[in-house]
Amino acid sequence: MKFNTNFKNIAESYLFSDIAHRVNAYTAAHPDKKVLRLGIGDVTLPLVPSVIEALHGAVDEMAHKETFKGYGPEQGYAFLKDSINGAYARKGVQLESDEIFISDGAKSDLGNILDLFDRDNTVLVPDPVYPVYVDTNTMAGRKIIFMDATAENGFLPMPDYSVDADIIYLCSPNNPTGAAYTKAQLKKWVDYALKKQAVILYDAAYECFVTDDSLARSVYQVEGAKKCAVEFCSFSKTAGFTGTRCGYTVVPKSIEADGLSANKMWLRRQTTKFNGVPYIVQKGAAAVFTEQGEREIKKNIAVYQENARIIAECMDELGIWYTGGKNSPYIWLKCPGGMGSWEFFDYLLDGAQVVGTPGAGFGKNGEGFFRLTAFGSREVTEEAVARIKKLLTE
Ligand code: PLP
User: Is the peptide bond before 176 cis (omega within 30 degrees of 0)?
Assistant: First the structure.
């Protein structure tokens, strides 16, 4: 037996364990202090009533011989795929339902999609980055090129034709930077991908936070994208499914090369290695697209959007440079006073008992930056902002 020694090349991620370690040490030394967490990327609001009702209904169906469900279609039930297709149509995107594949979340599909691509592909990822893109390709032994996301380009790197890439990762609105591409910017990426005969792996996990019409809610709102882009979506942040687990990936039929079709390959891959998302979960997910369900999830998203606005307003008042906050649940700020990411982390923990995420944990260009998230409660967000203001103006 020979192990996949590429695993030796995966950088250990100490980011969240380091954070936990420092916070635990602080609370042990200061048991009387209340620590506020604005570092988490997980939602805090419960599932909406329409989803809960649909889940209960599906559980009851499982209890009766007439309505019991065994194995379902690996690529998802038609009722959910059709609902998703309807939502795309409302965004002005025309898809066929068999271009939509239901999964247990975007993370799995982002890793699994690599089964479609030869090891001999050059991968282009932004720095800073959601670590999954880097680690999954490192496991497969692929060559990775980083493109710099910096304050100068608003953390939205644009194509450089002198760089040859085959697989391009774009995430918009972005984790960790909160920055989001306009449709015009994405068109430049689509043009680049078509010219290089590359594929764009477009992570739209945070699309529900987009409110500006100039920004994309789907890469397919850009002409030509169906020929070169696979889109990854999730119910996690849209509808609070981080623990319930459901997502979907769009693999257009028009992505073809070497006599192979990405859509057919993905169907083959999924039918071979995946047995589908539970019927109960898919019923819950479908409820998100009913009129009532949509109204309810929008109310939850609005809570996080308001938190983001409150944090962004605080940065404006303090004259701190940041991206995100609007069209995104993340606020990516430049650490004040030229502090490093971890220096600011300790300063904020010691001085305000507020926990965020050091930008350095997401790549070299994250050094000197810091991520705050809008997924806490309104009360915690307001208190944290008040403490940050006090600390930085005293
Ligand atoms: N993509 C990005 C950019 C994320 O930040 C996350 C989760 O935080 C995911 C994908 C994972 O989504 P899911 O919960 O659907 O696996």
Answer: yes
Nearest by Cα to 207 from 91, 111, 328: 328
pTM confidence score? 0.97
Q: 3-class DSSP state for residue 359? A: helix
- Give the tens place of pLDDT for each residue, 354-376: 999 999 999 999 999 999 999 99
Q: What pLDDT does 275 receive?
A: 98
CA dist 82 and 79 (Å) reads 5
In this prediction, residues 16-38 reach a mean pLDDT of: 95
Compute the residue count for the chain: 394
Find all residues with CB under 8 Å of 79, minimum gap 6, and list them.
282, 286
Q: What's the pLDDT score for residue 394? A: 84
Q: Which residues line ligand 1 (CB under 6 A)?
A: 41, 105-107, 130, 171, 175, 203, 205, 234, 236, 242, 247
Query: pLDDT tens digits for 241-268?
Result: 999 999 999 999 999 999 999 999 999 9
Q: Is 141 left (phi over 0), alpha (psi -120 to 50) or beta?
A: left
Task: Please choose from 16, 40, 107 the residue to mutate so as to test ligand 1's pocket, defined by most ligand atoms within 8 A of CB.
Answer: 107
Q: In a mutational test of the pocket of ligand 1, which residue from 16, 136, 171, 175 has the highest number of ligand atoms less than 8 Å from its CB?
A: 175
List helix spans (H) across the chain: 15-29, 49-62, 78-90, 106-112, 131-139, 183-196, 236-239, 262-273, 279-286, 291-318, 341-352, 378-393
Average pLDDT over residues 307-321: 98
